Amino acid sequence: MRPVCPHPSFSLNMINNASKFLAAGALAVGASVASLHAADTVKVGVLHSLSGTMAISETSLRDVLLFTFDEINAHGGVLGKQIEPVVVDGASNWPLFAEKAKQLLEQDKVAVTFGCWTSVSRKSVLPVFEKDNGLLFYPVQYEGEELSKNIFYTAEAVGQQATPGVDYLLNELEKKKFYLLGSDYVYPRTTNLVLKEYLESKGIPASNIIEKYTPFGHTDYQQIVSEIKQFSASGDACVVSTLNGDTNVPFFRELANAGIKSEDCPVMSFSVSEDEFRGLPTKDLVGHLGAWSYFMSIDTPANDKFKKDFFAWLETSDVTGIEKKGRVTNSPMVLSYVGVYLWKAAVEKAGTFDVDAVREALESGVSFDGPGGKVTMQKNHHMTKNVYIGETLADGQFKILKSYEGVYGEPFLKGTFNKKK
Predict the structure, then answer these.
(1) Max Cα–Cα distance, the chain, nearest Å
(2) Are 363 and 140 in contact (CB under 8 A)?
(3) Which residues make Cβ contacts (< 8 Å) with residue 288, sequence separation at least 6?
């Protein structure tokens, strides 16, 4: 029997309808896949300088955050969702930080952001996070005198770094003259304002305190080092440094060129860690000091595991431009790492990514046993944490000289020290 041939118009209609059906089906499947993808992930912002003068410090924070996200994702993510990082470059440009923060919150709709290094970058983004009710975890030592409901400060406050560092210089090394040298912005100036009050309360006269600032990226420290050499000729002086970024390189090189050794005039740095030492003449800086809430040399199982896992991740990482050789860990990296875990704990306690609920869970006091010891978030958005004083070794590591356990984070110290009668 010959097959029946349908009417041409019927055949064309059938084909058109089928095409529309298939197209609609494809769109539905695509939408369904996109929807499923969105349902399975949570976007998290990374806001650091990956270029410019601060890249020497901040790129490592990008790296450790990506490692932490991968570590958490490998163990099931957060509330069953995989972390999807959205990485943006603040480029050491403070107004650009605000623009990038707005992008993360309003376009990318991130649940939380981890970022900033300098206080000026943090202050630039603060109004954006407050306006859009976003969450920012800030991991780098800072001057205090701030409290925002939208920022959690895993960073060392002045009482968790600067005053313990000065105590060591006063009590252990018996120093009586202090040269306060910093980069010219809010963190060094405010920290030194507090330190001057603190030193005077300890009986140090104003005439024994010199305060100097240089701009970001400054390279000529010959005059300042000459002043330091003269200032320290009495043998009882020290430098307290809040220089930030790559300007530390020319300062320490000039210090070494001038023959100023740690036994002559020790430098207590609050912005130089193991990571910065990779670009410094470390052999000439043996004996100079640092104060942080973590050192790579801490000998504990938690720190050993952290270092082993991070270095293993580096070896297999395909992140564009990532450095794999000669890598180290430092305090801002660890404070970034523990910040992610505190956020995860708070989300799981709240049972939601909702900012207000997560904030409430954080304020209730979640804890995490990290590479530097146990940390606990306080109601005032700062952390209780350990503090360590370390001495620089020739291999770019720190020998731990003194430790303080469970130091409370208090942001408001200005004006609290009574002058010695």
Answers:
(1) 119
(2) no
(3) 262, 266, 267, 268, 269, 391, 392
Count the Cβ atoms, other than its own, within 10 Å of residue 212: 16
Tell me how far CA of residue 267 lies from CA of 160, 298, 323, 410, in angstroms.
Answer: 18, 22, 29, 25
Residue 301: phi and psi, rounded to 5, are -60, -40
Q: Which residue has the tokens 């970001």?
A: 216
CA distance 152 to 342: 10
| pLDDT confidence band for 38 (50 / 70 / 90) | low
Whose CA is closest to 137, among 129, 71, 411? Answer: 129
Please compute the mean of the pLDDT values over residues 219-232 and round it to a whole number: 97
- CA 335 to CA 243: how far, in whole Å? 20
CB atoms within 10 A of CB 318: 5
- Angle (CA) 30-33-37 rounded to 5° is 140
What domains appear along the chain, each with residue ranges and CATH number? 42-156+300-384 (3.40.50.2300), 159-297+389-407 (3.40.50.2300)
CA 305 to chain CA centroid, Å, is: 20
Check whether 279 has a pLDDT greater than 90: no
Q: What is the token pair recorded at 294?
A: 């973590």
Cβ 113 vs Cβ 47: under 8 Å: yes
Paired residues of 212 in beta bridges: 181
Would you state the structure tokens that stand for residue 181, as one six-digit string? Answer: 């040298």
Enter the tokens of residue 252.
């320490």
Pairwise CA distance, residues 266 & 118, whole Å: 25
- Which of 98, 287, 291 minimizes the C-alpha distance to 191? 291
From CA 336, how far away is CA 383, in angstroms rounded? 13
CA dihedral 293, 298, 303, 304 (to 10 degrees): 160
Q: Cα–chain-centroid distance for residue 119?
A: 11
Question: Taking the model in full, what pTM does it have?
Answer: 0.87
28, pLDDT greater than 50: no
Whether residue 149 contacts residue 130, with contact meaning beta carbons closer than 8 Å, is answered with yes
Residue appearing with tokens 């939601």 = 352
Q: What are phi and psi of 340, to 5 degrees?
A: -65, -40
